[in-house]
Specification:
The chain is α+β, with helices and mostly antiparallel strands. Helix 1 packs across helix 2. Helix 3 links the parallel strand 4 and strand 5. The chain has a single domain, classed as Aminopeptidase, CATH 3.40.630. The longest helix is centred in the C-terminal third of the chain and has 15 residues. It is globular.
Length: 140
């Protein structure tokens, strides 16, 4: 049985760590719940997809308004457990997020992806996402 829901309790958030850590290896388990809770106070939400009681996929996202595109659901983090890939979980998560974006009156659905993640890019193209911008960054 597959279900997607928001991680709202500390226990639910902690259960998402092993999968999120695959995308964000610099994260530390001891700090994870507090970091997510801090981001939640700033509008971040953490969704997780469970398959038979195991967390298979997680997505961190926010709904915000930006001048150039209007109201958008922006995905900060999206990852499916390496051992559970190619089973449709990522596609289910994207579909769930896009439906939520429509429910919340968003005009766009967007995410950034590291340039080294070619397999993820191929997946995003299959889901109908297109490259519309470049993201630039400077370490401070």
């Amino acid at each position: 049985m597959v279900s997607i829901r928001l991680a709202e309790s500390r226990e639910q958030i902690a259960r998402c760590f092993p999968v999120m850590h695959q995308l964000r290896p610099r994260l530390v388990a001891d700090d994870f719940v507090e970091r997510i809770e801090q981001q939640q106070r700033e509008g971040y939400r953490l969704a997780f997809l469970e398959q038979d009681g195991a967390v298979a996929s997680v997505a961190g996202f926010r709904v915000m308004s930006v001048l150039w595109s209007g109201r958008t659901l922006y995905v900060d983090d999206l990852v499916t457990d390496e051992a559970m890939r190619s089973q449709g979980f990522g596609e289910q998560m994207i579909s769930w997020l896009a439906a939520l974006a429509r429910e919340e009156g968003c005009e766009t659905f967007s995410l950034d992806s590291g340039t080294h993640r070619q397999q993820a890019h191929a997946f995003y193209f299959r889901q109908g996402l297109r490259i519309t911008d470049f993201h630039f960054q400077m370490q401070l």
